[in-house]
Amino acid sequence: MEAEELASRWERLHLSKEESACFHVQQKSIRDDIRRGKYCIVGKALTEKGVNSEGFRITMSQIWRLDGWVTFKELGDQCFLIEFQKIEDKEKVLSGRPWFFDRHLLTMMEVDEKESIDGLKFCFEPFWIQLHNLPLSVMTEDFGEQFTEAIGPVIRVEAKADGRAWGRCLRVRVAVDLNRPLLRGKWLRLDDKQHWISFKYERLQNFCFQCGILSHKGKGCLTTRNAQQGETLPPAQFGPWLRGQPRNTNIFDSRRYGGSKGGNNQQTG
To answer: Where is the DUF4283 domain (predicted)?
Structure first.
């Protein structure tokens, strides 16, 4: 149920005496063996069609390659409560995001035992974003943090210990807002020259080419639905060119040779 609908219905209700009485939970009554929230996450597949539960369990278990067991409890609305035997497995899954099932984004949230499942808001998901066409002079950790704030909260910038991040592109891990169109890039002015800095999203799969939203594709798009009712479909403003090839090697895996000691080639960093 949408939050607005629930709030509207609540305003019209008149509670009875029994309904108005508040039940207070004693902390000692909470069993220790059910305090497993730190081992759990809730995952939601952003798809307009239903999810095959058994296929989801088998596929994700194989992809994650965990050391311990994992269980999946279906919650409805393409949501699953996922419990891990080992906290290390849970952290491995969270740090490896984004994950996809059948090319649809699987957005995740950690479980807070004091909150209800219905109260969870799936608003952000971390992606590695590549910033292309940057002048070398601004390819730094500080610049990456400031320049990508418009996308969402910055998690980290791939850079060396001294803050430099020279290479073909600058990689920034950002919590992308799932309710806003993907940013395709931004203008940068350096001295008298303007540069268009294009963004590419690593491991990006299904998303809407009309409006750039990650949470739907095709039928769920208002622009597409209007076109089906007779309106002219405008040219797509987004496309597969927003997908970035994941970098499997560290761009800073460079070698420095020579130096003052002995003149022999030495690997120093």
So the answer is: 38-110
Give the model confidence (pLDDT) of 164-187 as tens digits: 999 999 999 999 999 899 999 999
H-helix or E-strand spanning residue 4: helix 3-12
pTM over 0.90: no
> Distance between CA atoms of 99 and 60, rounded to whole angstroms?
9
DSSP code per residue over 20-53 = HSPPPPPGGGS-GGG--GGGEEEEEE--SS---H
Contacts 24+ apart (CB under 8 A), 58-64: 59/101, 60/99, 60/101, 60/106, 63/99, 64/89, 64/92, 64/93, 64/96
Contact, 177 vs 154, CB < 8 A?
Answer: no
pLDDT digits (tens, 9 = 90+) for 85-135: 999 999 999 999 999 999 999 999 998 877 888 888 899 999 999 999 999
